Amino acid sequence: MLHVEVYGDGVKAIERGELIIYKRWVEKKPIKLGQMVELVSEDYVLGCGIWDRIGVRILSFEPCPSSIDDLIEENLMRAKKLRERVGYWNAYRLVHGDGDLFPGLVVDIYKDIAVLQSSSAAIDVLVDKIAAKVKKVTGVDTVVEKSVQRVRSKAGLRPRERTLIGSKKETVVEVDVEGIKYKVDVRGRKTGLYLDQRENRVLAQRISKNSSFLDLFSYTGGFGLNALHGGAKKVVFVDTDEQALKLLRENLKLNNIPENKVEIVKEDAWKYLRKTMKRRRSFDVVSVDPPALMDDLRNGYELYRSAYAGARAVGRNFLILSSCSRSMSRSLFLKAIYESLDEPYRVMEVRGSAPDHPTRVGIEDYLKTAFIGI
Amino acid sequence: MLHVEVYGDGVKAIERGELIIYKRWVEKKPIKLGQMVELVSEDYVLGCGIWDRIGVRILSFEPCPSSIDDLIEENLMRAKKLRERVGYWNAYRLVHGDGDLFPGLVVDIYKDIAVLQSSSAAIDVLVDKIAAKVKKVTGVDTVVEKSVQRVRSKAGLRPRERTLIGSKKETVVEVDVEGIKYKVDVRGRKTGLYLDQRENRVLAQRISKNSSFLDLFSYTGGFGLNALHGGAKKVVFVDTDEQALKLLRENLKLNNIPENKVEIVKEDAWKYLRKTMKRRRSFDVVSVDPPALMDDLRNGYELYRSAYAGARAVGRNFLILSSCSRSMSRSLFLKAIYESLDEPYRVMEVRGSAPDHPTRVGIEDYLKTAFIGI
To answer: Transmembrane region positions (chains A, B) (predicted)?
Structure first.
């Protein structure tokens, strides 16, 4: 067991619950990337973590177990148990980085395939060990890595995309989320189902009975499919991504949705909104769930405002307005809504991401979804 | 129709979406308390409201309808429709003050009884008209007033408690909320079910399967009953209020809960926590839902911390931590949690009040509930 002494500010950082303990706070020793280290202060154990380029990433505030494999397995087991408690199965986020005391790692489960994302050099080194434990803990037969996030290049890490465990060529799986079937292509240009919106989509089911529903930035159809499941009479899906719309069409078939209930529009959402206003067409419920505009685009805040205002202009009864920009705080999100909405409106509820996307001290929830009654 | 000219800051206030337009902002005219007035600026209609001691309370941003009865009915109809959209029936908050563009008024529906609360002199004057419209819009047969909140004395209004419509002496009703039956005594020392926790209790159902569950500040049993409904093996209810515990016992019978699944403790929650720690007893899930400590007690913040820390000490898997103090912001609530919880913990979700408690610009949600995985 490698013990590393932590000094002054580092001790305070751990006591505050921070998960990154920088090199300048710890005793100098030769340590390999990804090696398990036990952090101590005057023989008192502060926690257990792995060595990374910047210092130690905390995975536990307990003494280290006997091996790094045990450390990984214990953390995955705890994460799995919490998902089980919430009743999640089949498709869920197993590990949500810092929120699950596993900084640098994200793991999504889609039926028998696990998709793993690393944003740390230490996790990169450990990825095979992690994959083996993910298989053991969840029972998946395939583990693929899809470490292609932009944050990797900032950290000097190359994109990596490969199969870690399993020989299946087919990476399209069919999953069931809250009674709705989806096809997921884990090798697609984008992957996954944006599981963070799971509970918000369930609320969308409830408010969509007999409604006409507009699903802007529909992607593969999460909100609109839930609306149909909840009894919507008609859903218009709008997205520009042909790949996503292709999967959407398959999802509609999978869920036996009659064609006359659906309209699919391959178009820019703002353009669609302008046209719809001009034609004076309106919808009972409108969902706006754009990509992270404020993280990606200079004028992101204004774009949100214009999308929300557009939704208000074409929405009759209910709006579901989302933002997944990390740089847009919850209060800024509400400001954008207040500035964009004509009277009268009522903010019925504001929610964040689903419980399989936990947060902790210092980590704000990136997803905000407001349910607005008109 | 009485038109009242609004000046400078008053116009800006309305444009910001504020619902109280002070006397100093409007033209001086003799106006009766509770009279309907249309607010104009240079012949442009800004909205419609009622005259109160402090000025005009906005009920609509449209021109006034032909009578105050129509104004009241239109607002109640809109409020009712939004609750219907969410699928609420049988027991729900019909009007949530400012959040429903009805400042000074709260209306709860419990099956065939409506309970109405006024915190404004203007609403006091209109209460009979409102009661009649509540009956018409919701179909209740009884409307009682229970205007006994402390804010009334601040506004120089006396407590009022009486039957406005209906001759029933019996004011105990049985309602169904999300599949659980409750007895509600609208004339009891406290009333109601704290409907604001409705959705949070549904999530409690989901995480309670096979668990031992501690319901601190149980009141008439909302969280614990949901836990039992979700398959909890055993629930311990703790409260000091004998009246509440009496209704709790009736609720347990109503829902056919076997006695061996339940333990009822009439005791102070902190005392119970201390004893439980001493005995090293623990629970799979712990819910802490105290009264508004920080609004009512000087040391409220510290009391929350001590309750949350206690819950952590006796909780094994999951904590459900609530605060309904208006003076405790969401960020202060999270701070209290971070300061109270030993590692490891994961904030799985933070929610507010149910959708029948809407907010708007300038009004923060008073209820905060955090779901913590351990």
So the answer is: none
In Å, how far is A64's CA from the nearest CA of chain B? 14
When scoring A75, A85, A341 by the number of chain B Cβ atoms within 10 A, the one with the most, hence best to mutate, is: A85
B166 touches chain A (CB under 8 A): no
pLDDT tens for each residue of B182-217 = 999 887 766 678 999 999 999 999 999 999 999 999
Taking CB atoms within 8 Å and a gap of at least 24, the contacts of B165-168 are B165/B131, B165/B132, B165/B135, B165/B141, B166/B113, B166/B141, B166/B142, B168/B113, B168/B141, B168/B142
A89 touches B at CB < 8 Å? no
Contact B315, B283 (CB under 8 A): yes
What is the pLDDT at residue B286?
A: 98
Decide if B324 is catalytic.
Answer: yes
Pick one of 1.10.3720.10, 3.30.420.40, 3.20.20.70, 3.40.50.150 as the CATH number of A174-373: 3.40.50.150
Contact A346 B81 (CB under 8 A): no
**What is the reported pLDDT for A191?**
64
- The CATH number of A68-170 is 3.30.750.80
Q: What is the pLDDT of residues B308-332, one digit of tens each?
A: 999 999 999 999 999 999 999 999 9
**Chain A residues with CB-CB distance to B356 below 8 A:** 348
Check B206 against A87: CB less than 8 A apart. Answer: yes
Domain A2-60, second-level architecture:
Roll (2.30)
Among A365, A351, A292, smallest CA distance to A97 is for A365
Neighbours of B253 (CB within 10 A): 12
> B101-118 pLDDT, tens per residue?
999 999 999 999 999 999
CB within 8 Å: B86 and A206 = yes
- Residue B142 tokens, joined: 């009884």
Q: Is B86 on the interface with A (CB under 8 A)?
A: yes
Domain regions of chain A by residue span: 2-60, 68-170, 174-373
Specify the pLDDT at position A86: 94
Answer whether B346 sits within 8 Å of A207, measured CB to CB. no
**Residue A359 contacts B, CB cutoff 8 Å:** yes
CA closest to A367 among chain B residues: B349
ipTM: 0.95
